[in-house]
Design goal:
With 131 residues, the protein is an all-alpha fold. It is built from 6 helices and no strands. The chain has one domain. The protein starts with 7 loop residues before the first helix and ends with a helix.
Length: 131
C-alpha cells in the first residue's frame, strides 16, 4: 500500500455526508436549536468519527442560532483586531484569520490558543483605544 493513500479525504467526506444526510432531515426546531452535544451518537454515528469541521459541528449540535452566535463572536474579534493600530494589531489580525480558517478543518474549539488570542485582541483594543 502506498504511503500517500491514507483515505483521509474519504473519511472526511463520510463525516460531511453524515452531516448533510442527517441535519437537513431534522425538523425546523432541531435545525434552529441543534441536536445537542450527543446528537450524532443518538443518530447512530460512531463517537470516534465525529464531524471534523467546527462549523459543521456547531451547526449540528447548536443549530443555526449557535452557528450565528459563533460567527458573530468571530466577527467581533476580527473587528477588534482591525481597530488596533500598533504593530501587534497586524499579528493579531493574522492570528484571528488563521484561527477562523483553521476551524474549517478541525473542530477542536476547546484548544486555548484561539481563545487566548481572542481575549488578548479585545484587551489590546480596549487598552490602546484610549491612547
Amino acid at each position: 500500500m502506498d504511503k500517500m493513500d491514507s483515505f483521509s479525504y474519504d473519511d472526511r467526506q463520510d463525516r460531511i455526508n453524515f452531516f448533510y444526510n442527517n441535519f437537513f432531515h431534522l425538523d425546523f426546531l432541531k435545525k434552529l436549536y441543534g441536536a445537542g452535544p450527543a446528537g450524532s451518537i443518538l443518530m447512530g454515528f460512531d463517537e470516534t468519527r465525529s464531524i471534523l469541521s467546527l462549523y459543521y459541528s456547531v451547526t449540528f449540535e447548536l443549530g443555526f442560532l449557535g452557528l450565528l452566535c459563533i460567527l458573530l463572536f468571530f466577527s467581533y474579534t476580527l473587528l477588534n483586531s482591525l481597530k488596533i493600530k500598533t504593530k501587534i494589531g497586524f499579528f493579531l489580525l493574522i492570528s484571528i484569520i488563521s484561527g477562523v480558517f483553521h476551524f474549517h478543518f478541525i473542530a477542536n474549539f476547546w484548544y486555548p490558543w484561539f481563545w487566548f488570542i481572542a481575549a488578548f485582541t479585545i484587551f489590546c483594543n480596549k487598552t490602546f483605544a484610549h491612547e
